[in-house]
Amino acid sequence: MTALRLSVESLIASPNEKALAERIGEHLRVTTGRGPSPSEARSWERSLPALARDLADAGLSQVELLVEYKLPLTSKRADVVLAGVHPRTGQDSYVVIELKQWSRAEPSDQGEHLVIVDGVPGRELLNPAEQVRRYCEYMSDFLGVLKDRPQSVHGAAYLHNAMDLDIDGLHDQVRDERSRLFTKQRRGDFHKYLRERLADKPGAEAADRLLSSPVAPSKQLMAYAAGEIREREQFTLLDEQQVAYELVMRAVDGARRADFKQVVVVTGGPGSGKSVIALSLLGELYRQGRTALHATGSQSFTQTMRRYPGRGSTRIKNLFMYFNSFMDAERNGLDVLICDEAHRIRETSTSRFTPAAKRTGRPQLDELMSAARVPVFLLDEHQVVRPGELGTVQAIERYAESQGYAVTRVSLDEQFRCGGSRKYEKWVLRLLGLDGEGPVPWDGDDDFEVRLAHSPQELEAALLARPGSARMTAGYCWPWSDPRPDDSLVDDVVIGDWSRPWNVKKDRAVGDAPPSMLWATEPSGFGQVGCVYTAQGFEYDWSGVIIGPDLVARDGSLVTVRSENRDPAFTSRKAVSDADFDKLARNVYKVLLTRGMRGTVIYAVDPATRDFLADLLPRLSAITA
Predict the structure, then answer these.
(1) Which terminus of the chain is more solvent-facing, meaning fewer CB atoms within 10 Å of its CB: N or C?
(2) What is the pTM of this model?
(3) What's the first-to-final CA gap in the chain, in angstroms?
(4) Mean pLDDT for the stretch of residues 216-236
(5) Side by side, which strands form the sheet with 153-159?
(6) What is the pLDDT of residue 357?
(7) Where are the alpha helices (H) located in 259-332, listed in sequence order?
(8) What are 326-336's pLDDT values in tens digits?
(9) Given phi > 0 = left and psi -120 to 50 = alpha, else beta, which region is 169?
(10) Is residue 248 within 8 Å of 264, Cβ to Cβ?
């Protein structure tokens, strides 16, 4: 279930607030794999009964409450969605409520929508009125039941412990009817607001329709990047994403006025919105006429950015660069340099093709930080997959501090890819031994499918049968041949009587197969097996992952087998120790296993590994169409 359904009567009739919190906590534990924090439990104990009393006093006792409602394809949860019937139209009507126990808060000078809250020192938060407005907008974008009726969802923040003077200035940020803000001093206004949008009629059917609504296709990052940069923001930034965005924009203003350098580090797991933030920043800076560039260490990612946002515009294409493009850059020549996929930063920018005169040994981090007044690094430390990559928070912060640069760090601690399933990401980390805990059985998630295939044919057929985009990937355990003279690919990935080619090696199409950098985004990429270097940074609806013989189950856990890996980057034991190989190989599979937005199908070449996974995962035949 994406929410716990409660009635006004049940909340008022139950005087045991602690039991209520325990019930909601158990729901959270089952649906997310994590228990509530003490502050969450206190919030439920104090805020939900107060809301129920207000609903009863407003004469809306038949409205249904959806508590901890999970926004589609994210791990974000709205405190409460009230489901009912509109008093004038008779149609479904929904009011998203963000409950805050704050007694005092004031606007922050660090960003337009940021606030400082008593009792939460040293941290800016999003104004709850803006927070709930964005939740409403996001629901309208993604829920089929709201597709043609976006006006049926409304939003309000309710600070039931605060008086107006306690939050002076927060009302100034209210934009519209989706971002209303009420205090305990304005309970009467709150009741009127609710009565104008909800009738005292049963809300169960409206709740059913919301909870069973089909989820519209997500706004794919690449397909909408052109509009993001040229015209207006196409993405709704939520909570920490918006905080990160506003902190960077304020750092840009401050660095320009005061002539100093500010380094911003944004961390987050797969699909947490790092690249969406990057594009939103680039778009706004571009519209303001600021000097800004986007850079990555991935040819696939950069070339895709150039292809889609830059279609028809050389100037826009030139906004997308590589990390090694800044060896000769003028110091502070840019206002902002957005370093996306910063876990791929290397020790130096030099390669075997670099002229001897330019082999200075200068750290790539120095080049990137020097190039802009505000260098922004967006990264996931579990995606370091190649020797020589050193894009970690510790490395970036240590180098910045050694140069006397101020550092601001923002953590995107929510999961947006993998159907928003933090539970699945945690399961993958445990499976691969990346978080210090052992593997556990997958016990399901309403929003994300994980299944085990017992043959590569079964895996491929399942992906073909699923609606939406799909790709197959594998560990680098087979040779990788050049195309034949007749412009056909060699079926290098051979498993029994099944064989398929790797994706194209280079930046030109081979036959019907797209060039390597477009494998993840062009439909004709299906049918070739992708590797980590072409999959990293991208997403598709369904992910089929072939675990090669370089990762096998032995004695109840997965171990790496270096001799089975064919990646040339790992050939030299002098350059890559066995311990480093073990960590990097596990990170490779972590990347491959977290590319899917709706589900993952796994096949393991090693029979013992398949048996091991069979005890953790349901069979593929259990997938329902």
Answers:
(1) C
(2) 0.77
(3) 19
(4) 49
(5) 4-7, 64-70, 77-85, 92-100, 153-159, 180-183
(6) 58
(7) 274-287, 299-307, 314-317
(8) 887 888 888 89
(9) left
(10) yes
